[in-house]
Amino acid sequence: MFQNLSMTITADELDNKIDPKGQGNAVTANFIHSLDACIVHQVANEVDFDLATIHDCFVTHACNAKQIHGIVRRAYTKTFNVDLLTEFRMEQINNNPTAELPSVPELGDLDVSAVKRMKYLLS
Question: Which of 65, 80, 93, 100 is most exposed, with minimal Cβ within 10 Å?
């Protein structure tokens, strides 16, 4: 009891069963979040100055701004220069040969390396 307030916390028992509907609903968000984390890890492994991250945002001192822009751009180019969705689909098929998965959308003509030349990527 705190200042005449009381709170009760309850938790459901977790079981070891996989929830197929929950997994299906979460796969897209989890895939995207894993890409964000991949970028963060690549950047963090390359910097030799103070760096903070909040999800997929980077914070550093102004004197490091030009350097962090280059590092982030290289990480994005390296990561997204690969057809990750096809790789993910093939991994799922290899792990679950009986799974019926839709084809991946056709890739467009985006030149991922153009990220290195863009005036604005971070703000």
Answer: 100
